[in-house]
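Below is one such protein, fold included:
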Amino acid sequence: MPTAGLAFPVFLTQQENQDELLEVVKNLCLLHADPFVLLTPTRRRLSPPTEQMLAQRKALFLALENEMPFDEQGGLQVQPDSRRIVCSASRGGPRAWLRWHGSFPDA
């Protein structure tokens, strides 16, 4: 799993179905031997085979709808600790801290 203080690639993808996401993950796993972060708009296209492949590569999967929720008007909901997202691996693995850059509205 990518961890704080280390350089690792981050990929953003948006696929139409589970098969397309699986193909993207296969290609990323073939091209990158080290852990990486994969961002998608939602978890809806994440299938068990894709999850398994990501786990084998020790990749971190983040669904933006969970990490960056929007309100009914389409505005970003700012949480009290919005300057970082904490993601922990399943099975008690290490934590990856992704820091936000830029300015934030007052919460």
Notes: Residues 80-107 have pLDDT under 50 and may be disordered. The first helix runs from residue 18 to 31.
